[in-house]
Write a structure and sequence with these properties.
- This protein is α/β, with parallel strands linked by helices.
- It has three domains: 93 residues, NAD(P)-binding Rossmann-like Domain (Rossmann fold), CATH 3.40.50.720; 196 residues, 3-Layer(aba) Sandwich (UDP-N-acetylmuramoyl-L-alanine:D-glutamate ligase); 162 residues, Mur ligase, C-terminal domain (Protein-Tyrosine Phosphatase, Chain A), CATH 3.90.190.
- It contains 15 helices and 21 strands.
- The strands form three sheets. It has a ten-stranded mixed β-sheet, with helices on both faces. Strands 16-17-21-18-19-20 form a six-stranded mixed β-sheet, sandwiched between helices.
- It is globular.
Length: 492
């Protein structure tokens, strides 16, 4: 394994694609810690503006001139940081390599931060962004002033990264490219394991092996005892559950499930500690929350403090993110792009319909799922799983598949998914759009007053609300339209 990166304030760092969700968090934290940080990104926006306010010099162009600019005026050559989204064909990266600059992956920088102080690193196929957000939020609410590096905007911070002066760092550990094996946290967390990222992992065993290496690098592991794969392949120091407190170090058993939250009894080592009220509906969010409480308890935070802090929990942007009202429809964005995530998000939405209670302005009467398949490889692997999950909606509109740079696979597209849904549920109203331009019109035709229009996917379907906006301005609540989450933000 290559030698670990050691951060030195005398060493400038330059981020190619600094506006990305993972890159911007690192750049902002390092700038606040006094490092000389520059970056490049052709896209302007709130994230780039915030970085500039922190003292990061951001270049619009990614070319040889930018490399020349970051090399001038410094006696120490900068380290260039890239993510997996930066191709080798990138002109700026090619010039940096030609000039002999050191090039490292963003995971090397994150590993340097995680390994330098007591850290909590959250991994798993589903829920890691939400769980790491909840951990950081609870630590902040209980005056522990954490540093946080999260793959989504944390409502309590208004950003995806935060420099804190406290003892702990909280990080989301993304398994998509296997780079999380570099991390050496004090506490590793595993939310669950299912096959995903089939562009990187040939099978489930390969993913399990990578997560085992990640867990083996931690001082202790906290894992979800309700996940059969974790139960079979891992031996953590601590288990949590939402099903049974027996044999579990931490458990939360729901006593009331509503469309606007969950009441549960919280247990430690099989003993009832007290009742908690969670302002987030859904069993998946209860699991995320008990994991976050457990991590904080392991770090010595009192249950009394945590129970009080739960009332302020909000989940990250793009996780059941309310965007506003449009002709009597309530429009929500969600990042769900795996069958289990789609199923959990739709179950939560239908709970709002059944219970007549919701954190949205009004409880919805029906759920219209607007789904965009993400990657040909993922869609091919999980076509039947996506179809089964989407049958729980009251109507479905499919956006064109988002390739994410992959080459097409014959017979795999949104039309194939639509056909699979119709085979399982012939009476379900399913429409397939051939372009994003047609999506807003199709949503208008397929929806009705009182609907929850739930846009799900990891591609560009999450901009649906912008396409609806010219028809009638959205009326937003809680400031959620900036993607930072809001009172109605929940997550899978």
């Amino acid at each position: 394994m290559p030698q670990a990166l050691l951060l030195d304030r005398r060493q400038p760092l330059h981020f190619i694609g600094v506006g990305g969700i993972g890159m911007s968090a690192l750049a902002g934290i390092l700038a606040e810690r006094g490092y000389d940080v520059t970056g490049s990104d052709p896209k302007e926006g709130g994230v780039v503006d915030q970085l500039r306010r922190l003292g990061v010099r951001v270049f619009r162009k990614q070319n040889a001139a930018t490399v020349a600019a970051i090399r001038s005026g410094t006696s120490t050559a900068p380290v260039v940081v890239i993510s997996s989204a930066v191709p080798e064909s990138n002109a700026e990266l090619k010039e940096a390599r030609r000039c002999g600059l050191s090039v490292v992956h963003r995971s090397d920088v994150l590993a340097a931060l995680i390994n330098a102080q007591p850290s909590i690193a959250v991994a798993g196929t589903h829920g890691k962004t939400t769980t790491s957000t909840l951990v950081a939020t609870l630590l902040q609410a209980t005056n522990h002033d954490p540093t946080a590096v999260i793959g989504g905007v944390v409502p309590a911070f208004g950003s995806n990264g935060r420099h804190g002066n406290g003892r702990l760092l909280v990080a989301e550990a993304d398994e998509s490219d296997g780079s999380l094996v570099k991390f050496r946290p004090r506490l590793a967390m595993l939310t669950n394991v299912e096959l995903d990222h089939t562009d990187h992992y040939p099978n489930l065993d390969a993913l399990i092996a990578t997560l085992q290496r990640f867990a083996g690098g931690a001082e202790a592991l906290l894992a979800n005892g309700d996940c059969p794969i974790l139960r079979e392949h891992f031996q953590p120091a601590y288990w949590w559950s939402t099903r049974n407190p027996e044999g579990m170090h931490f458990a939360a058993i729901a006593t009331e499930e509503r469309g606007d939250g969950t009441a549960a009894d919280f247990y430690e080592n099989g003993e009832l500690v007290g009742r908690i009220e969670l302002p987030l509906p859904g069993q998946h969010n209860l699991s995320n929350a008990v994991a976050a409480i457990a991590a904080c308890r392991i770090e010595g935070v009192s249950f009394a403090e945590l129970r009080q802090a739960l009332a302020g929990l909000r989940t990250p942007g793009r996780r059941f993110d309310f965007r506003g009202n449009w002709h009597g429809r309530q429009v929500v964005d969600d990042y769900a792009h795996h069958p289990s995530e789609v199923a959990a998000t739709l179950e939560m939405a239908q709970l709002m319909v059944r219970s007549g209670r919701s954190p949205l302005p009004t409880p919805p009467r029906r759920v219209l799922a607007v789904f965009q398949p993400h990657r040909y490889s993922r869609t091919a692997e999980f076509l039947d799983g996506f179809a089964r999950a989407l049958t729980t909606a009251d109507a479905v509109v499919l956006a064109p598949l988002y390739a994410a740079g992959e080459s097409p696979i014959v017979g795999i597209d949104s039309q194939a998914l639509g056909s699979a849904i119709q085979r399982l549920a012939p009476q379900l109203h399913v429409q397939v759009c051939t372009s994003l331009d047609a999506l807003a019109d199709q949503v208008a035709r397929s929806s009705c007053d009182g609907d929850l229009v739930l846009a799900m996917g990891a591609g560009d379907v999450n901009g649906l609300w912008k396409r609806l906006e010219p028809l009638q301005p959205l009326t937003a609540i809680g400031g959620a339209t900036d993607g930072a989450g809001g009172p109605a933000a929940m997550a899978a």
